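Structure catalogue
Derive tokens from sequence
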Amino acid sequence: MDAESRQIRLSALGIVAISLFLALFVRLWFLQGIDRQKFEVASASNRLRVIHEEGPRGRILDRNGKVIVDNRTSRVVSLDREPLRKMKAPERTAHFEQLAQTLTDLGRPTKVAFIEQRYDDKRYAPQDYVPIVDDVTEDVEIYLAERASTYPGVVVETKSVRSYPYGTLGAQVLGYVGEINEKELAAKGGTLPAGATTTDPPETTTTLAGVDPKPYVPGDLIGKSGVEQSYEGYLRATPGSRTIEVNARGDLIDVVKRQSATAGDDVWLSIDIDLQAQAERLLAAKVDALRGRTDKDGKRLSAPQGSVVIQQPTTGQVLAMASYPPFDPASTVNGISTALWDQLNDPANGRPLYNWALQGTYAPGSTFKPITAYAAMSSGLLPTGNETYVDNGKYTLKSCKGSKCEFRNAGGTAHGRVNVPRSLTVSSDVYYYWIGEQFWVSRDRFGDAPIQDAAKEFGLGSKTGIKLLGENSGRMPTPQSRKAAYDANPGAFVTGDWRTGDNIITAIGQGDVLVTPLQLVDAYATLANGGTRYRPQIVSKVTRIKDAALPPGQDGNFDVVMAVEPEELGKVPMTPEQHNQIATGLVGVTQDPSGTAAASFRASPTAWPMAGKTGTAQVAGKADTALFAGWGPVGAGAVPQFAISVVVPEAGFGGDVAAPLAFRILQPVSNGTLTPACPTASKAQCDLAALAANQASQSDVGSGGPG
């Protein structure tokens, strides 16, 4: 190799060496300069962790400020997955087995599979603590704390959970909370809906910037039903956070920063908890007294559920909403197991999770007759309401031929000459059969559905709009809806034609007519006030605590965030004369010796008279549904304060069951002797009061008439 070649090779090697050193220099410069900040952030993230902290939900109070849903502190055993990830799989499994056995031995049975499922749950962020067991005792917390080295990655946190000072009272209205699921979490993580403004209600989950002011993470609690669900936007707290410093093993070194959570807003119901307790106690006593008995026709009474709704006719505020059977919301605090869920939704148990007052639908029976009476007067069929018809106990369709053309009153009773007031007092079916046929044979004059049109004015056949999810719309059949149903499913109907028989059955609230107890009381509240239909309200206001350092119940320590005002939904064009005719007949139901509820209301009268109507709805293959709806006080210059509906299916006659129950609920209200509701802390005294109520309620079974 000559000198020139050697020189070329050395020059090439020099260039390569210089290039390598230059590359190393550039990389070092990049790492120390341009990428320094990124590595510093990454380093900090390895030792700093942000922990989401859910704050206490707002309380739920009754209209008088009595707290009926509160919060308490719960100890939660959770997994810190950071140190657990450093374990090999067999070591981690053995660790979980030991933990499961320990928790089981300490009184909280826990499966290994559940712990592993939680550990692998991808919904939780890597830095999040993952809860595995709620509501452990202080002894469990101390035991695990003293053996921290034995149980790495196991921490005991405290969180706020719901408490219920009045036990099961109002459970279906209040609802329950549970851990947010994937669907709910996805829904809460959306962007601001188009057209939203800063005045949108808190139910809007995001701000205008697209950031939720009350963000959710896996494991957070969310309202699942009732007021807890419908007013979630108010009740939910604004979450806080902790920024903590940990060592390489994940052990806590220090709390670097803390952003305190802000408690949710308090929701005040329109419910009077004392009246709610009265309604629930007597409803339960009545149902218990009925079950296993037989009615006057020999049908077995099962009474699987029942409801009572009391509404203020001048505002629409719901004062009580009782649904039977109840459930214990405290049983849901730590989540609802599959077994408990099945139990609470089992028809054999009466589906305790159902709010039968707004989800149950029933034929209204004779409680529907005031609607038909109004239709007859307002349409001009019975211009004054004094037009009479002779009720001889049976009615034969004029347009019918054959053996199935005759319809009878309950028991075949003949009521003689009746008009609108008298027909309501004695509950004459024959009078309303006559009205129903007159409407149908003269439909060229009155139209196809004058009864249904009147029912619509009173809100029947559609949701009331109460701000509780799950409300049923009921059903108001028409010739058009019958044809549509037949076309959709011909096998379910003999014909798609609406016939005279359909019209007369609709006139007495039978056939395909279905209403909810809430719709029924709202219709009677509309009757009571002369024709103004209000939206039923379950909440009166929402407040926010001013000073968190002061007791939350201290007078004046809150600002009103939202006040609920009466909301008119419509006006029934009812004349004073029409209202008087109907009211006179309904007062007769409770006060006239021949009235179908007189046996209950005249034996020991309320301090003020009531207007009302009994109902007995027939159900194929089952005992009758017992109903009562009414209002009070009535009389010259009286302002109606209470409208009530009572519905107990498979319970017998309305005059025997529903009317006495309504009377017993409202009697102490009228004379100022209503017993205050008892918190569970005073259960002994409450049991004595309940026993007395049970005995009183059982004594009035079978005291009335069919209605």
